[in-house]
Amino acid sequence: MKITRRLFAFATLASSLFALAFTIAAPKPAADSRYLALVGTYTGKTGSKGIYAFDFDSASGKLVAKGLAAESIAPSFVVIHPNGKYAYAANEDSKQSTVTAFLIDAKSAKLTQLNQLPALGEDPCYLSFDQTKKYLFAANYSSGNIVVFPILPDGKLGEHTAVVHDLGALGPNKERQEAPHAHWIEVSPDNRYVFVSDLGLDAILSYRFDAAKGTLTPNDPPSAKLAPAAGPRHAVFSPNGKFFYVVSELNSTVTAFAYDPAKGTLKEFQVVSTLPKDSPGRNDTAEITVHPNGQWLYASNRGHDTIAVFAIDPASGAVRPTGEFATGGKEPRHFTIDPTGKFLLAENQNSDSIVVFRIDSATGALAPTGETASVPAPVCIAFSH
Fold first, then answer.
1. Is the pTM of this model over 0.85?
2. Burial, 201: exposed, middle or buried (Cβ in 10 Å; 0-12, 13-18, 19+)?
3. Digit-coded pLDDT (tens) for 304-320
4. Are 144 and 181 a contacting pair, CB within 8 Å?
C-alpha cells in the first residue's frame, strides 16, 4: 500500500514537472501585428470624401485599403485615443471649422460620429491629448488660437474649458506672418505645461496646464523665440524628455532646445538646415518626429520632396544630418513611424499616395519597401494602439 502511494506521488510529481517544462519551452503566441490606420484628407476638389481606413501589418509593412471610414469635411488632422475606441478629427474648413468625435468599429473599419463642436477658431490643423487622455487640445491656424476640450466618458467632446489667443510680436514675412498662426500644440511629458508652435510669431508659446480644470495660464517666460522669419510649424520632445526639436516651415530648419521640466522653459542650442547645401527651388518643411529609440530625428521637405534624417547625440541632444530620402511623391505634408518603429509612412498630398519605407535599425536610413497605397490628398495618418 505504501509503495503504491509512493509510486502514485512520484508519477504525479513527474507529470507536473513535465507540464511545467512544456509550458516554459512552449513558444509564446505572437503578438497581433496588425493595426488600424486612419488617414485624414483634404476634401472638396480633391475627390476625397473624408477619412479613409487601412489595415497595416507591422510584420511585413503591407498596407491594405479598407475603404472610406467616414464622410467628413476636410478632416486634415486625425488622432486616435489610446483606448482604441474613439477618433477625433480637425475639420479644416474655412466656412465651418469644427472638431468631430467618432466611435471606432475596428472590425468593419468604420467610424460613427458621436458629436461635433465648433472649433472656436478658424482652420483647426492639429489635435493632441494631454497625458491623462481626458482632454483634447486643438490649434486653430488662421485665427491663431488654441482650445481645450474635455473628453467625456462616452468619448464625446464636452464644452471647452479654455480658449486662448496667441500673443506676441509678428515675424517679418508680410505674406505668411501677417497674424498669429497656431500650427501645433502638445503637452509636456509630466502634463504640467502645454507648448504651442506659432508660425506667425516665430515663437514656441508656453502655458501652465491645470489638469484638474483643463485650463491654461501663460508661463514665465511665456515663449521661446526662434530666428526671424523661421516660421515654426511642428515640434517634438525627445523620448527622454530632455530635448525639444522644432521644424520651421519658412526657413527649412530644425531648431534644438534643452528643456527644463521644473520651469517649463526652452533654451536653444542648435539650428540646422533640413536641406543639402545649395539646394535649388522652393521648399516648405512640414512634419518632424523622433524615432522611439531616441537615436534619429526625421523631418519632411515639401518642394524638395524628401525626408531629412538626423542622428541624435544622446548626451547633448545635438543633431547631425545623415541624408535625405525621396518620398516617392509630391508634397509630403505628413509622415509617421509605425508603432513598432520598423517602418515610416510618408503621405504625399499632391500625389495622392502613401509610401512605406523600412527604417534601417543601425543607421536610421530609409528604404522604400515597394508598398504604396492610393488615397486622395492624404495629409495625416494615425494608428490604433
1. yes
2. buried
3. 999 999 999 999 999 99
4. yes
The contacts of residue 370 (CB under 8 Å, 6+ apart) are none
* CA-based nearest residue to 58, from 312, 340, 326, 289: 340
Within 8 A by CB and 6+ apart from 45, the residues are: none
Is the confidence at residue 15, as pLDDT, over 70? no
Amino acid identity for residue 186 in this structure: E
- Calculate ∠ Cα 176-180-185, nearest 5°: 110
| Closest to 127 in 3D by CA, of 135, 114, 138 | 138
Task: Tell whether the model's pLDDT for residue 287 goes beyond 50.
Answer: yes
The pLDDT of residue 83 is 96
Q: Which of 101, 194, 85 is nearest to 150 (CA)?
A: 101
| pLDDT tens digits along 111-164 | 999 999 999 999 999 999 999 999 999 999 999 999 999 999 999 999 999 999
Question: Using the 8-state DSSP alphabet, how is residue 377 labeled?
Answer: S
Mean pLDDT value across the chain: 93
Side-chain-facing half-sphere of 315: CA atoms under 13 Å: 0
| Strand arrangement of the beta sheet that strand 296-302 belongs to | 284-290, 296-302, 306-312, 319-326
Burial of 212 (0-12, 13-18, 19+ CB in 10 A): exposed
How far apart are alpha carbons 347 and 144 in whole angstroms? 25
Task: Return the residue matching grid coordinates 523661421.
Answer: 230
